[in-house]
DNA sequence: CTTTGCACCTGTTGGC
DNA sequence: TGCCAACAGGTGCAAA
């Protein structure tokens, strides 16, 4: 039995937590740290469920079921941590959770000071704030009326207030809608997320802005697709 | 220290 | 129909 299987064998699951986009499954002697990357999924399946392509890990549960980790692109990860879990290098330097009180305009403004990086890349930096991926970065910037290419240090305090609030709003609304299914994402219940219908800019290149009808602009910024309205965002 | 761009992978799509 | 390039929801790290 290889490393993680041997280290975790027979232990009870004491609890499950989340930090940023990492899932923490706490066992008795340590914690499993799991990230789904771009294409990973976890499914609860019967013990005799046939193996499918890109199934990588099974956690065998007392119930007779399996918790199965499938990840075609293999950008996901699984680590076994012992000791002070939050002190692990992958977790220790993460910024605040966007829906916690510490994340607000004052925090964001102070962390924009002196930063020449584009604001979109800045809010996607997990050392600044966690949980803001490529879809919601574009969406939050649209809602705040800020162009994604603006240098972070150029934002006023009022703009940081608006942006922090937009990040919180867009994430809250997206969670409420079950997430954003672009292609094949489904939630634990197998249902897609419906936030795609509420997107203002993401994957809407050349389509009319929902606010002003100007064609939505697409560009690549930091190797990621970015969408914005030249009229509504400055 | 900040900033930039690459690397890690497979699968799908669209143009020729 | 087939081939090939471009692109996809993330993020850690090396290099400049």
What's the layout of helices and strands?
Layout: H1 3-8, E1 15-19, E2 22-26, E3 31-35, E4 41-46, E5 55-60, E6 65-70, E7 77-81, H2 89-92, H3 105-112, H4 119-123, H5 134-144, H6 157-176, E8 217-221, E9 224-228
Antiparallel strand pairs: 1-2, 2-3, 3-7, 4-6, 5-6, 8-9
The chain binds a DNA duplex (16 and 16 nucleotides) through loops.
Account of the 3D structure:
With 234 residues, this protein is of the alpha+beta class. It folds into 2 domains: 90 residues, N-terminal domain of MutM-like DNA repair proteins, CATH 3.20.190.10; 124 residues, Helicase, Ruva Protein, domain 3, CATH 1.10.8.50. 23% of the residues lie in helices and 21% in strands. The protein has 6 helices and 9 strands, in the order H-E-E-E-E-E-E-E-H-H-H-H-H-E-E. The strands form 3 sheets. A 4-stranded antiparallel sheet has the order 1-2-3-7. Strands 4-6-5 form a 3-stranded antiparallel sheet, with no helix packed on it. Helix 3 packs across helix 6 and helix 5 packs across helix 6. The longest helix has 20 residues. The protein is globular. The mean pLDDT is 97. The chain binds a DNA duplex (16 and 16 nucleotides) through loops.
- SS class: alpha+beta
CATH topology of the largest domain: Helicase, Ruva Protein, domain 3
The second-level CATH architecture of the largest domain is Orthogonal Bundle
Regions with little confidence, pLDDT below 50 for 5+ residues: none
Order of helices and strands: HEEEEEEEHHHHHEE
Number of helices: 6
* Average of the residue pLDDT scores: 97
Describe the global form. Answer: globular
Portion in strands = 15-25%
């Amino acid at each position: 039995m290889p490393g993680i299987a041997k280290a975790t064998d027979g232990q009870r699951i004491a609890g499950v937590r989340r930090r940023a986009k990492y899932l923490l499954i706490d066992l008795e002697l340590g914690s499993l740290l799991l990230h789904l990357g771009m294409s990973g999924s976890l499914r609860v399946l019967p013990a005799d469920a046939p193996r499918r392509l890109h199934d990588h890990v099974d956690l065998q549960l007392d119930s007779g079921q399996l918790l199965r980790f499938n990840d075609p692109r293999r950008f996901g990860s699984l680590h076994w941590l012992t000791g002070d879990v939050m002190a692990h290098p992958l977790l220790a330097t993460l910024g605040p959770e966007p829906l916690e009180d510490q994340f607000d305009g004052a925090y964001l403004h102070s962390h924009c000071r002196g930063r020449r990086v584009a604001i979109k890349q800045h809010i996607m930096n997990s050392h600044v704030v966690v949980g803001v991926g490529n879809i919601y970065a574009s969406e939050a910037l649209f809602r705040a009326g800020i162009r994604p290419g603006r240098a972070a240090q150029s934002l006023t305090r009022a703009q940081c207030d608006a942006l922090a609030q937009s990040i919180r709003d867009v994430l809250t609304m997206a969670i409420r809608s079950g997430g954003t299914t672009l292609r094949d994402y489904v939630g634990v219940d197998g249902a897609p997320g419906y936030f795609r219908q509420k997107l203002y800019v993401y994957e809407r290149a050349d389509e009319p802005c929902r606010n002003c009808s100007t064609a939505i602009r697409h560009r690549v910024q930091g190797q990621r697709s970015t969408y914005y309205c030249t009229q509504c965002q400055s």
